[in-house]
Write a structure and sequence with these properties.
Three copies of one chain form a homotrimer. In chain A, helix 4 packs across helix 9, helix 4 crosses helix 10 and helix 9 crosses helix 10. Chain A is an alpha/beta fold and 287 residues long. The longest helix of chain A is centred in the C-terminal third of the chain and has 19 residues. Chain A contains ten helices and twelve strands. In chain A, helix 6 links the parallel strand 6 and strand 7. In chain A, 38% of the residues lie in helices and 20% in strands. In chain A, the strands form two sheets. Chain A has a seven-stranded mixed β-sheet. Chain A folds into two domains: 90 residues, Methylene-tetrahydromethanopterin dehydrogenase, N-terminal domain (Rossmann fold), CATH 3.40.50.10280; 151 residues, 3-Layer(aba) Sandwich (Rossmann fold), CATH 3.40.50. At the A-B interface, strand 2 and helix 2 of A face helix 1 of B.
Chain lengths: 287, 287, 287
């Protein structure tokens, strides 16, 4: 059996150690790690993955695209896929800074407690790599989503992009602050997610606990103060009043399982392309 | 048994993935990959390979020198060898951009159909890394070689260099275009190789099929239009008129076998130095 | 059992091959090699080591800090340790350019022949990475140490730093040249170590062989002319007159054993921090 090779393509100069350890723990035998990757220098590396093994063995070579710059990673991912033709291809996973696996874990957590297709969600920090993916996954699951950002224009852009990907989605854009906007943004929602920048509190305890009908609240921030006051970073389906709460570490276990399972999926065929949706589906199969 | 370690020294900033996959498939257990290598920064790395294992175990450490710049790789290869003294040495393979393994595979293909020491070959694109090695290997095999380039001066330089390495060689330099030179360059040859730049047609179908006595034609270009019109990239001993034809992929299988076998040879002793000739000899033993 | 992962953090642009080979020979299964490391870019990499495995498995991940610039490596080592909190930590070894393992091997060699706590040592080249560590290890062992440098100010700084670390140490600073200072520096000493720059002779044969009571002389220089005339690089407990002598290669075998044993120690717990003293203690257990 050919050795399982993973080509780690990272936009950062120093390729992620986090992604490398998870790859080894997912059973990767040889890891080829490259930092400083751009759409301009990636093709030759992808050709090296495509042209070295026979079509039957290509499923033992795969590519992971990561890095802290999600937008750069997406461009690399697009360039990688454009290199393939016919049976000359290998499987690829995109997970810049864990954005896809984290978003998948957050939506899976909510799904345990809510019928997403009958719910309304409020996503704070919705324009970041994790937030925008949470929006997309929720929209695909039939959830109405309120897309919240400090900047209304950026929120509207996420709404447009998500609508283009999921035409049937029910989306609206909102700017917070001003804080006066909060009550109407929250009213009637069953699910709140905070995916904003570290150390910025987005909701006070009073603000979210007074939302009638709120069932699930997830804060993906690992560094206190968290975005949602009153949630602990280790919360894992913790009951706080009427609301089931998750913190970043509480979601992290599922994120790691999804990350490993997605990597293992890469090696089951040579044509797997794992972006947010496919990674979420892998997470659903884990349940 | 000590772990098989290969030190990959690559002149390109991103070390070759192609060479890395082949190394793993040849049985290398630990691959230390370095990009951006120059003669100036390589010594310390080579010392690390020389001074870490006892003389009896040094054959389990080896060095591969590669990269897309063949001239830089040759300088690195020379510097690596100059680091060694006494029994403090490890085996080294030079194969920048596959030039040595590709040239060896091409000459081996011809050898299956021709008595090289009784033949005359025409090498187009003879001044590039692959072409110049094809010239050298053919000259060593006793084949008369017509060295063809767009630039007569560069063709003459290859003739001089080859003559210096193989004093008994029968070599001549030719410039094409002008196209009027072609008939006399081709006349009386039994073997034609095209090792020129991609996407440049060097010979029309009419031009080579009208050469009486031509027996073998090989085009090493993988991207159409090929250098020799009428050859397919997948040709592998395909009969076209009187001529046995090979395309780049048709030669590629042998190239990969030679590449893997050469890497395995590195680990049989600590003093193997594998340049074109040694790699060609390894290819001959595979038959 | 989780795979043994070593994160190699090197201040040099090209991470050390020497350290990598020793790591593999010490049983490391996956080596993540990073060059160009600084205190500024190391945190994210350390977080990747800390946050990927459960507390029970963290002892299977470890960090090695190296590079030719010992002062930079020390800063990286400090930054790495400052990343840890609670059980979220991995073991770390500091050995820039082999300074810790070489110093440990030299002091261990002396210890075989001398009661260090009853001896006086003279350390030449005492301000370099190896020399300053030899001073510290000897001071901890209760040996009186004469710290010698070309520059009295630098020697005094090493005395101060060592005194701060080992308050009970008996230390004095000396400048040589002038050569006239030598007799008094050497008089009454039982042990002489040369850890100076390559190719600089520090002591003539006549100078050290006339020291009455001198029992051990060690030269850590591998490139002739050595620092102590009359010692051979391969000397290993060689008797020269009344003096037991060691050269760099003679000490090298013990250095390699200590280096490997220290790496293996990293994987016995998640909280090992191996600087000169801990590495020396590991060496003592090998005897």
């Amino acid at each position: 059996m050919p050795t399982k090779i993973l080509l780690q393509l990272d936009g950062d100069l120093q390729p992620s150690v986090f992604d490398a350890v998870v790859a080894v723990d997912a059973g990767v035998e040889q890891l080829f790690r490259h930092g400083g990757i751009t759409p301009d220098n990636v093709r030759e590396l992808v050709h090296g993955a495509m042209f070295t093994r026979g079509p039957d063995d290509l499923r033992h070579t795969a590519i992971f695209v990561g890095g802290s710059d999600a937008s750069l990673a997406e461009k690399i991912y697009d360039t990688v896929r454009a290199c393939f033709f016919g049976p000359l291809r290998v499987s690829v996973m995109l997970d810049p800074n864990g954005a896809n696996t984290t978003a998948a874990a957050a939506v899976l957590a909510a799904e345990r407690h809510l019928a997403l297709d009958e719910s309304t969600a409020v996503v704070f920090g919705a324009t970041g790599p994790v937030g925008s993916r949470v929006v997309r996954l929720l929209a695909r699951a039939g959830c109405a989503v309120r897309v919240v950002s400090r900047d209304l224009g950026r929120a509207e852009r996420i709404v447009e992009q998500t609508q283009a990907a999921v035409p049937e989605a029910g989306l609206s854009a909102h700017a917070v602050p001003p804080e006066e906007a909060l009550p109407s943004v929250l009213e009637g929602s069953q699910f709140v997610v905070a995916a904003g920048a570290p150390k910025v509190q987005l909701l006070s305890r009073q603000q979210w606990q007074s939302v009638s009908g709120l069932q699930v609240a997830i804060d993906l921030n690992a560094v206190p103060p968290l975005g949602i006051e009153g949630i602990e970073v280790t919360d894992k389906a913790a009951s706080r009043g009427e609301v089931t709460c998750y913190g970043a570490i509480g979601v992290g276990g599922t994120k790691m399982k999804i990350h490993r399972a997605a990597l293992q999926t890469l090696f089951t065929a040579s044509d797997r392309l794992l972006d947010a949706e496919e990674i979420f589906a892998i997470g659903q199969d884990l349940k």
